[in-house]
Design a protein that fits this description.
Blueprint: H1 19-46, H2 50-70
Helix pairs in contact: 1-2
Length: 108
């Protein structure tokens, strides 16, 4: 990169979410998955027949999936919400006054 070459320019709208926000989201997804696993274990105790085996399979597979999802890297994280909403840029309305023309104040 040459001196004075700005290189790649980043804008705030391209920034990833804050690390604390991203970690809170991963924690929430993990806890939801573990809650579903707990429900599978409890229901497997009381539900008879083939649904019991489905619930046991869910209780066995969900921890692995929960860890894989919780450990997903930030490189695939979508840009975050910076809390700034872009406002549309409006054109300045023409005033009808010519600049530097004192004889004709209004040009319509």
């Amino acid at each position: 990169m040459a001196k004075g070459d700005p290189g790649e320019v980043f804008t705030i709208t391209d920034a990833q979410r804050a690390l604390s926000v991203e970690q809170a989201g991963r924690t929430r997804r993990y806890l939801i998955s573990m809650g579903i696993r707990t429900a599978c274990v409890i229901l497997a105790i009381f539900v008879p027949g083939w649904p019991r085996w489905v619930l046991i399979a869910g209780a066995v597979v969900l921890p692995y999936l929960a860890v894989v999802v919780a450990n997903a890297g930030r490189e695939n994280d979508e840009p975050g919400d910076a809390g700034v909403t872009p406002h549309p840029r409006l054109e300045i309305p023409a005033s009808g006054i010519a600049i530097g023309d004192d004889d004709h104040k209004h040009v319509a």
